Backbone:
DNA sequence: AAGCGGGCCAACCGCCCTTAA
DNA sequence: ATTAAGGGCGGTTGGCCCGCT
């Protein structure tokens, strides 16, 4: 657009003594700064300046050039108009579709949307949306096309999962993890589709509406350098209707006990009806299966705070004008809770790889694969287990939980209890729930899976035994991980792999087995350089810092005492492939 | 032709977060 | 630990364009 075209005469020469909108007075001389539309000559100066000095330090532009513009103004002008590769012109239908879809998911996160629309700016998208929404509102039309609503309804359901995600020393949980299948689909649906920067802490989950609830949850974590982690748990009183979208769950909802366990409490209570005053019975009487490992008496030492979280109005939370129902929210607004914590402020990283190769996704991917193959092999027709997306979308919240969880439970079979406990250990627990909500599947014969969950910063081992816990009850076992040669891997990883880590456990009961087996894995090891450079922590907390890329191709995994074979990496029985971009090479 | 209003868009504003001193 | 500066982001404003009456 021609800059002169929209130059209002009364602004061209308008000046300001403000430095942008800064409330703070700037040191030094107060230059008279110009406001209003930019002229071509100003653009040229700015372009030249950026060419010479690069982006950033925008306030220096004004100091070091003839440009009498605030730093903010410069940044804005550059970002929205002058920077290269900007796409001009109307949005394409594809872009429009994407905007609508993104908005249905994330609400008014213009910058995030812009990040996913190359060449487009947040301002453009915002303007587009605002005009579009006004138009629709005037016409009394729904904001989202009906098919979009329906489609997102599924995704909505999918997002109604607990986002249990480990980001550096962070874990977050939310309720819908109880539908792992849904979660898997959700994660899968977002594969390669996420490129958020990590907004830590930034808690969100699938477009949920929080309404005056409090929740708690628990999650175990082995000692992970308690010195560096400071957990502050807060119970959030969500007295708002907020969009919680599927951004990276962050560091909420945790607390770490003196024992090193990280706990996360959850006490769900959500409302089905849009009318916030009407509550429906909670699924499983307020209990959600899967909390077995977390309901063993560990009490929270968290500091409970009540606070209101401000979140923007979500897309799918709008009531449809025609029926007043909650679009895409068949089971009603769930609740959430957040425990704030963590001092660490991880660098911004692309979520693309983090998410795609994240702990949860990997877990779910693996288990889903296992489940799929199992189902395929057995041709078992369990309608309740065969929960499709559509079914999920149409099911009530209760059914959603039941079917989803049951299926997932089955997916873990034949090692139902152990695998489930593994899952339980790794996934957020739900207070009071139990795997016994569903009958355990029949155990089959031996073998085990080593699931290697990892992304750039995290690595976690979990052994999933495809054998009944009865086979192991009363036995001691140990896990060794060793490696032959390590090639040119980093020192840290070499040491990690070449040093057998043995963790001995005694299995005394099924429940004990459920717990202990999930604790398999290398202990936290202080790195050869420094904790910052290298640290490995035990399950749910292992992380490779920096770019250490361990090679596991020659590693041997040995579980002793349980009559199981040892496996080398390449002979690992089941789906043990590491996710791409996980920072670890096979 | 003039007036009006909606659409579109650039720019500003205010708040917030991060970082460095 | 505190404070100031830099910068990001979402909301809002206001001017021009354009079609309609």
Residues:
């Amino acid at each position: 657009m021609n800059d002169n075209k929209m130059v209002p005469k009364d602004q061209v020469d308008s000046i300001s003594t403000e430095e942008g909108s800064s409330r703070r007075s700037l040191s030094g001389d107060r230059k008279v700064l110009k406001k209003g539309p930019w002229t071509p000559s100003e653009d040229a100066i700015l372009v030249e300046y950026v060419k010479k000095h690069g982006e950033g330090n925008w306030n220096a532009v004004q100091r070091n050039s003839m440009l009498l513009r605030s730093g903010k103004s410069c940044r804005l002008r550059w970002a929205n108009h002058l920077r290269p590769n900007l796409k001009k012109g109307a949005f394409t239908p594809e872009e429009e579709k994407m905007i609508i879809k993104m908005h249905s998911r994330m609400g008014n996160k213009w910058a995030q949307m812009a990040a996913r629309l190359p060449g487009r700016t947040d301002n453009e998208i915002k303007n587009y949306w605002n005009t579009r929404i006004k138009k629709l509102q005037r016409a009394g039309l729904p904001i989202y096309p009906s098919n979009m609503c329906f489609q997102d309804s599924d995704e909505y359901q999918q997002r109604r999962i607990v986002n249990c995600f480990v980001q550096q020393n962070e874990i977050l949980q939310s309720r819908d993890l109880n539908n792992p299948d849904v979660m898997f689909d959700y994660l899968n649906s977002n594969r390669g589709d996420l490129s958020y920067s990590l907004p830590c802490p930034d808690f969100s989950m699938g477009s949920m509406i929080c309404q005056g609830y409090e929740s708690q949850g628990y999650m175990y974590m082995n000692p992970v350098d308690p010195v560096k982690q400071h957990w502050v748990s807060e119970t959030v009183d969500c007295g708002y209707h907020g969009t919680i979208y599927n951004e990276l769950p962050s560091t909420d909802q945790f607390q770490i006990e003196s024992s090193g366990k990280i706990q996360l409490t959850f006490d769900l209570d959500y409302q089905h009806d849009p009318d916030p005053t009407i509550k429906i019975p909670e699924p499983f009487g307020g209990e959600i299966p899967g909390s077995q490992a977390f309901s063993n008496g560990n009490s929270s030492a968290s500091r409970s705070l009540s606070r209101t979280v401000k979140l923007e109005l979500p897309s799918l939370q709008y009531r449809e004008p025609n029926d007043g129902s909650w679009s895409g929210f068949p089971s009603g607004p769930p609740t959430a809770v957040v425990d704030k914590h963590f001092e660490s402020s991880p660098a911004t990283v692309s979520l693309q790889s983090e998410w795609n190769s994240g702990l949860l996704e990997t877990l779910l991917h693996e288990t889903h694969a296992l489940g799929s193959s199992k189902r395929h092999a057995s041709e078992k027709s369990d309608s309740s287990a065969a929960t499709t997306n559509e079914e999920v979308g149409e099911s009530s919240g209760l059914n959603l939980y039941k079917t989803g969880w049951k299926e997932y439970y089955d997916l873990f079979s034949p090692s139902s209890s152990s695998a489930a406990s593994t899952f339980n250990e790794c996934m957020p627990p739900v207070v009071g729930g139990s795997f016994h909500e569903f009958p355990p599947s029949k155990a089959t014969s031996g073998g085990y899976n080593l699931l290697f969950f990892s992304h750039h910063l995290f690595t976690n081992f979990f052994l999933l035994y495809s054998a009944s816990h009865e086979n192991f009850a009363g036995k001691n076992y140990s896990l060794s991980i060793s490696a032959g040669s390590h090639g040119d891997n980093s020192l840290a990883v070499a040491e990690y792999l070449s040093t057998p880590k043995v963790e001995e456990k005694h299995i005394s009961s099924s429940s004990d087995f459920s717990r202990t087996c999930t604790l398999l894995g290398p202990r936290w090891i202080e790195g050869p350089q420094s904790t910052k450079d290298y640290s490995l922590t035990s399950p749910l907390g292992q992380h490779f810092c920096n770019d250490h890329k361990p090679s596991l191709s020659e590693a041997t995994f040995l579980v002793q005492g349980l009559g199981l074979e040892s496996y080398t990496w390449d002979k690992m029985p089941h789906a043990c492939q590491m996710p791409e971009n996980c920072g670890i090479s096979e």
Notes: The first helix of chain A runs from residue 9 to 12.
